[in-house]
Amino acid sequence: LIDNEAFNKELKKVVYLSGTAEGRLVIGEQLNDLQVTVSVNSAQVFAEYTRIPYPVVLSGGRYLFHSTRCVVDQVHARIGVSVLRDLSLGLDWSQFGYLEVSGGSSQLKVRELVGWLETIDSVQPELQSLDFLDGTISLADFSIKGPLHEMQQWQYGFNGKVEQLGFRPAVLSEAVWVDTMRFAAEPAGASDIRFQVTDSHIRWDASRMQLSGNARISANGADVDADLSIDEITGSQISQLAGLDGSDAQTDKGRDFWPRWLEGVLRVDSGRFKLGNLTFTSVKAGVILHPDNMAVKITRADLCGISVPSLLKISPWNLTFSAEPETAG
After folding, report:
1. Which end of the chain has the lower number of beta carbons within 10 A, N or C?
2. What distance in Å separates the CA atoms of residue 203 and residue 181, rounded to the nearest whole number?
3. If the chain, 329 residues long, is cut into consecutive pieces of 10 residues, what is the mean pLDDT of each piece?
4. How far is CA 93 from the centre of its chain?
5. What is the rounded distance in angstroms from the CA atom of residue 93 to the CA atom of residue 74?
6. What is the number of helices (H) and of strands (E) in the chain?
């Protein structure tokens, strides 16, 4: 009944389908140009869809199919153990194709979300250097829209919070845990996203951190402008950022762990910086992030009452440190 190559190609990706639905099927009046309209008032559907590596269960809501357009409204979806509530979808699979998705209060398990992202060729390489341990993303609402076959041009809008997110980059010997973090995103230009982070509480080894700021995300990467507060950081932790001092990257020199998609500015305020037997206090620094390295310009670091401005340069498997103590003149 549906003579549409794109639709039928996508339908073949549904490898299992079961459930019940109540509705109406209408076939157009003209025999030489049959148009199919399907209207469903309620459904309970279980499906396995190759684009999503977890079982999908849809319940409730309303569904409408006509010609090359499908509309889904107020559906509850369960994907694995993740839950999407009040899900609405508009899908046009005509020549150019267009997708619109929106939803309300939802909970996503991070490991399931990562499992789906790993099926996307453009995202997969960036995830290979990260080991995700756990975590939940709670969305207050979300929206996605854009050309169906050009994901890089989709526009996203969402806000919510992250809880108990654990991940370990290959460059670190200990995992980073985001106990809580609020975030929001909105379109910024044709295909970019403005991402904002507030109210974060982060742990890395013995350090406790708070991060707030913005990032502009595009197909080319992320440009960051943020503030980071740390109670204490050590020379060993900084060495790990360069792929040294016990990280997996130290023993696997063929593994490109550096986040080359990340650039921008990070303003750092730390209570203590421990470097060997030395302890610097009241540390303030500016971090310039480049695709191939980062430069840390320490504008203040007190050591026994003497201010010691210094410069750290960090790149893959390389770390340099130079200090210029201030003298009374």
Report:
1. C
2. 12
3. 67 87 77 74 89 89 83 92 93 80 94 84 73 93 86 86 93 92 89 92 96 92 96 93 69 70 96 93 96 94 90 91 72
4. 27
5. 21
6. 5, 20
